[in-house]
């Protein structure tokens, strides 16, 4: 599947991508700023509690950088926001798995705790869902621009009343 398909500038899905990136970016920005404001040790592997999660100075900076990427995607909007959401969401889930293996080790440089791992999984899935909404499905409606781009011949034909259109899945 090609994630570079163009949406019309005023398509309603662009708002979902933009708001999703903006809200998640704002939450990460607040978390990162709270960690830096507390003056946490930069490379502490034990971490201190910030907003219910374990954090250190490095995790605060990573959170702020990630928030900047998400907010930039939200400002740009459209397919860029969607792609940024998908990539960042996937990285969050992968980070959850990596940090799960590093718990209680000396290599836990981001001071992750189990609550951070769960947060990483949930947040990653939420961000990725915002990015994939209306874009990744086997049953997209015929008026969806992604469906039309994938089925150019069927999109040119008039819709059939009640019967499956050419290219529709039987599932």
From TrEMBL:
<feature type="transmembrane region" description="Helical">
    <location>
        <begin position="84"/>
        <end position="103"/>
    </location>
</feature>
<protein>
    <recommendedName>
        <fullName>DUF4383 domain-containing protein</fullName>
    </recommendedName>
</protein>
<keyword id="KW-0472">Membrane</keyword>
<feature type="region of interest" description="Disordered">
    <location>
        <begin position="152"/>
        <end position="171"/>
    </location>
</feature>
<feature type="transmembrane region" description="Helical">
    <location>
        <begin position="109"/>
        <end position="133"/>
    </location>
</feature>
<dbReference type="Pfam" id="PF14325">
    <property type="entry name" value="DUF4383"/>
</dbReference>
<keyword id="KW-0812">Transmembrane</keyword>
<keyword id="KW-1133">Transmembrane helix</keyword>
<feature type="transmembrane region" description="Helical">
    <location>
        <begin position="16"/>
        <end position="37"/>
    </location>
</feature>
<feature type="transmembrane region" description="Helical">
    <location>
        <begin position="57"/>
        <end position="77"/>
    </location>
</feature>
